[in-house]
Amino acid sequence: MKVVINTCFGGFGLSDEAFEKFLERKGIAFDKVEVEVEEKSWLNGPTYFNAGHAGDDDHSLWQHQFFENQNRSDPDLISVIEEMGEAAYGWASELTIVEVPDDAKWHIHEYDGLEHVAEDHRIWG
């Protein structure tokens, strides 16, 4: 199975173009609202909402909704990254696709945004 992880400090994230392509593949219609703050930061850029609900926080579309742990093996996510390569990288991210055995129970381990896939095991104490 293919799994997407971030291989640099910063954090997982897609570029705006890659996120839009992902939403389109999922059949999710969206409105894009441009947001600008005065200083250069990761906060600059668009905010996404379900179509017809621009500005309604109850209908926000955030990347973290879609890409928590096991969702990183989503076939549409994998396809977008394979097609776009580095153009799919979001702010402070370098995305890599790793192969994990299909029968493995796994999770993504993260430290300051740097990630790796670890096989689940038991821990006590």
What does this molecule look like?
By secondary structure, the chain is an alpha+beta fold. It has one domain. 19% of the residues lie in helices and 29% in strands. It contains three helices and seven strands. Strands 2-3-4 form a three-stranded antiparallel β-sheet, with no helix packed on it. The protein is globular, with a radius of gyration of 16 Å. The protein starts with a strand and ends in a 6-residue tail after the last strand. The mean pLDDT is 91.
List the helices and strands and how they pair.
Layout: E1 2-6, H1 16-25, E2 30-35, E3 45-50, E4 60-61, H2 63-66, H3 75-84, E5 95-99, E6 106-111, E7 114-119
Antiparallel strand pairs: 1-5, 2-3, 3-4, 6-7
Helix pairs in contact: 1-3
| Alpha plus pi helix count | 3
Distance between the termini: 31 Å
| Shape designation | globular
Mean pLDDT: 91
- Describe the main β-sheet briefly: 3 strands, antiparallel
Give the C-alpha Rg: 16 Å
Indicate the percent of residues in helices.
10-25%
Whole-number tally of structural domains: 1
Strand portion, in percent?
25-35%
